[in-house]
Amino acid sequence: MIDSVDTILALVLLSVLFSFGTSRLPALIKIIAFQGVAVSIVPLFIGHGLTTGGTVFTLVTLLIRGIVIPLCIYLAIKKVAIRREVEPIVGYHASLLVGLILIVAATFVSPKFNLPQTSGNVLLLPTAITLLAAGMFLLMARRNAIAMVLGYIVMENGIYLVGTSFSVRAHHIVEFGILLDVLAGVMIMAVILQNIKQAFDDVDTALLRTLKE
Amino acid sequence: MVELVFMTPFLTGVIAFFLPRTTGRLLLVITGSIHLLLSLSLWIRRPIAVFPDYFAVTPEGLLSLLVISLLFFLISIYTIAYLKEADIRSENIFTGSMLLFLSTMTMVTLSDHIMVMWIAIEATTLASAPLIYTHRSAASLEATWKYVLICSVGIALALLGSVLIDFSMEVGGVDVPVAFSSLTEVAQRLDPLWLKTGFVFILVGYGTKMGLAPMHTWLPDAHSEAPSPASALLSGVLLNCAYLGIFKTNKIMQAAGLGNFSGNILIVFGLASMLAAATFIIRQTEYKRLLAYSSIENMGIIAFGTGIGGIGAYGAVLCLIHHSLIKSALFLSSGNILLGYGSRLIEGTGNLAKLMPKTFVTFFGGFVGIAGMPPFGIFLGEIFIILGAFRTGHYWGAGLFILSICVIFAGFANHVMKIAFSDTGIEIKTNESPNMVWPQFALLITSIVLFFWMPGTLYQTIINAVNAVGP
After folding, report:
1. pTM score
2. Residues of B with CB under 8 A from a CB of A
3. Complex ipTM, two decimals?
């Protein structure tokens, strides 16, 4: 039987490659939305013996990571910036190569950690590590402010995946608090994006260079 | 009940968003005084929290809480006068954010659960972001963007670190609540590899928020662009909150017998921060940025002292308390200077001693204190840290420590002399209203009093807080 968790995780890995290769912001936002959905349904299949509270929480996560957060950013940039490219510092082909190297490296190092409860899902840890590194990469290799926010979200998705393998003990109220913080953070970033757009008529972070030593 | 201390400012903060412009000012002071009373009652009664899994009253938390409470009360009085002079468009957002900021910082000091701590620290970032953007200029927009993005990413790493500490429980086969207090008790049984990795991520994450070099880049921008009362809060207490996260994790490391590992990392980051601050202070052109870099220096001193452990950790806690008192007095004074001269540049000021004599006294007094001279408490703290460093054989570390303190003193003194005495022929626009001066005096006098006489309960609480960090 093909493991459903690994199938989902494979899709997540693909979404990383797509996000590295795309030049258009709307496409990037859609990819991140898909990634959010995929990452948040993993706990449903991982089989910790799901309780009602767990299911509800997973659905709320799905709603926030998959719909609310991407929508927030989409609305923030709707008018001016939507037709713009992501202004890469590292080119798309090079980015794709980096993405592949990341995945290979993550798969290579993962078995070296002696993690509990990952024996059933080969791809869980490699995917989490890849997402963390991919988020960092998007933050560094794109000058566009929106792409940077999306990089932050990818990182958060990675941390969420790391967390799912231990989520037996964590209280849902605590996890919900974390989720709320992330949501509020992204909303504040969206507001700042909107203001940057109005003040500079662009969202290129190269324009934000007045404060430095 | 413990939770009331942070629920009160939360509620008044939410209310403040909907109040008409000037009513919020009064609410600020009222909440500040209620908060101070509640904190004092926590000191006296030390109750158990309603949700003991998530919150607890710890010695180090009590120390930070009292500092936060006292500072906020004094700063709120200053803020009323400041808001009358300064032109702030959406004042209710400012006051509301100040109160929410107070609430989240209080939550940091009282949280015991490792994830709740993270939630609270991330919430401080979110609550303080509108404060930095108060002036609505392009520069403040940039500072806010940097602040939110860098701190969020940094703190995300701390979340990863917290999850990894969870792993160390699972691998070690420990089943206790994921709280700092219970983890410290069972630290010996945690898996050392995951614990170490978790500590590194937490240090980098909360270190970003604390302003340790090389993750400090957001700090000078945010502190210089925020209005002065907000800068005073950011520098005086927000940095302490982030430090609390590192301090508590360090306690787990000490209890697990990994104190050398965590101590050495803290020493390296501490010295790096001090050296980075020294290089930027010498060539600084703006006085608020000067103060911000001085905060980075002091956070470096505190990290170094904590890394040394023992008597050094005691010195670090002293530095923490006195840095809050003195630095917030300095930032409030810098607010007066900014209102008076209308310029952020050191060049744009001058002759402060004659033009604003009272502000001159607080600014110069603050400088003397922050430079580590008696009769202010940082002097004692630094002496203890240096003694501790020599006692544990960190001769190179102590050498670099003393060197950077000297360089910073020279650079800082040079700038302060220019501001205070150079005759630039500038006229000033404002007079000094009493409410914009006496909070600074109160802060500085508190520091002097604590230098000569420390109440027994305060001393005992500091000892209780640091006794886990080496002999």
Report:
1. 0.94
2. 53-54, 113, 115-116, 118-119, 122-123, 125-126, 129, 133, 138-139, 141-146, 148-149, 152-153, 156, 159-160, 163-164, 166-167, 170-171, 175, 178, 220-221, 224-225, 280, 283
3. 0.92
